[in-house]
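Chapter summary example.
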Amino acid sequence: MLSSRAVSRLALPLAQHARPSASKADNWIPDVSIDTALVHGGVKPNEETGAVLTPVFMSTTFVQESVDKYLAKGFSYSRSGNPTVTQLEQKVAHLEGGFGAICVGTGMAATSSCINAFMNTGDHCIMTNCSYGGTNRIAREQFMPLGMEFDFVDFSDPANVAAAIKPNTKLIFSESPTNPTLQICDISAVSKIAKDAGVLHVCDSTFATPYINKPIDFGADLTIQSMTKYYDGHNIGTGGALISATEELYDRTKLIQNMHGNIMTPMTAFLVLQTMKTMGLRVKHQSASAMEIATFLEAHPKVERVLYPGLASFPQKELADKQHRNGMHGGMLWFDVEGGDQAAIALMDNVMRPWTLCENLGATESIITCLLYTSPSPRDS
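The structure predicted for these 381 residues follows.
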């Protein structure tokens, strides 16, 4: 049996696991474009082999040179940190404008990690009433029975958020644009409200992607991404990321990741490191295609209503243009057809290729979705 001294030597702080590296490759050009950052940001050739792509480190454990030099190379066990995953986490943090990031199995894993990290029994969260169904469901079905409080508020007016703050409020949870209603949150205004109240603000920016909007740049403390969507972009796998603006927040999320064993697999991390390189190309074309389709649908006699942030008719067009980069508004839109649900179902049942009736978004395929069935539960939609 190890002595208590030996045990304490082995139980080094999680902060000593591989952290976002402050070092940069030699002769790095300053202030590169986001397109360049998508390819090169946070990544440099492998020091041992010169491989331009980050290798896939399929190893559970990592040999230590000695007890005194335990974790000297940054890794001991892949639940706590893996070189391939860490490279992706550093790249995501770089791209999102954060100090550090954790990459986990799904977008919902990122959401649950955030709430687990920053809320306890008796704490209060203000959450958008237009959130993704799975976010709403986990708040109601898991965290509320554990004694946490949630108020679901209309975030289209920041005054509603300010009015909902209580003495026990610990977290403000926004989403912009929301899934699926495309409501825009004024991230700067809500972040100011949060800071004035000493409350953390997390923004789920999956629909926007960092190519269109970086919540941390607008004052948010944390950003959530479902990497299944635009980061992957090819319907290959699932993943999520929780990005922290500060070292203190990052350390807390990294601890939660380790305790929950909630880390992305090395192979998935390797694939996302490749697919995210084309995010800019995809988002630009998807935004242009969505605008063209939205304009077509808005003029169609059998369409009652179309919502897309690029349309002049969009209720929050001014805010969307202010927050979204270069007039891009993403690849998602929604519309109502004449005849109600039955007409919509008939459209989806008979849609012609290249459109496909399935569940996901942000990938290269053209997808049409029935929310009643693809939301995590019918009640959520």
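To summarize the output: The longest strand covers residues 169-175.
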